[in-house]
Design a protein that fits this description.
about 140 residues; mainly alpha; about 55% helix; two-stranded antiparallel sheet
Length: about 140
């Protein structure tokens, strides 16, 4: 399976714009965005769903930093499928995707429409994001 993702060049442009607006370096930007994401998800864990298939790489960033606030399980297959090979690109992809879901009012919707481009024809598939660690955290917050 090969999922259509945001073009990396487009993501690098978003990142450059974000850095310019914030007047910070990429190395300063990464922990700031992770920390603000952590603040949001700690307060309202169910919002993890708006990251869709990009969630697993985002969660992996927390785990790689030794932060197990959101649990330890990651879906390795989806980490591989959605990985850009660069932490900053993975982070901006997750942010852009979440922003688009937020704009559509799909913050807590677990179902996501993705395009599988592995065959000769593009096939639309439904991806349902379920992270039991986050679902458990969500149930404890309500």
């Amino acid at each position: 399976m090969k999922i259509a993702k945001y073009p990396e060049e487009e993501l690098r442009t978003f990142l450059a714009e974000s850095l310019a607006e914030s007047n910070i370096t990429e190395e300063e930007w990464k922990p700031k965005l992770l920390e603000s994401t952590k603040t949001i998800l700690t307060k309202t864990p169910i919002h993890y769903r708006m990251y869709g298939p990009y969630w697993w790489n985002l969660k992996k960033m927390f785990i790689d930093a030794g932060d197990f606030t959101f649990g330890e399980f990651i879906d390795a297959e989806w980490v591989s499928i959605m990985d850009y090979g660069n932490v900053s690109t993975n982070l901006i992809a997750a942010w852009v995707y979440a922003e688009s879901r937020f704009g559509l009012g799909l913050i807590v919707e677990s179902s996501h429409r993705l395009d599988d481009i592995s065959g000769s024809e593009v096939e639309s598939i439904e991806y349902v994001l379920v992270d039991l660690d986050m679902e458990d955290l969500s149930s404890k917050r309500t």
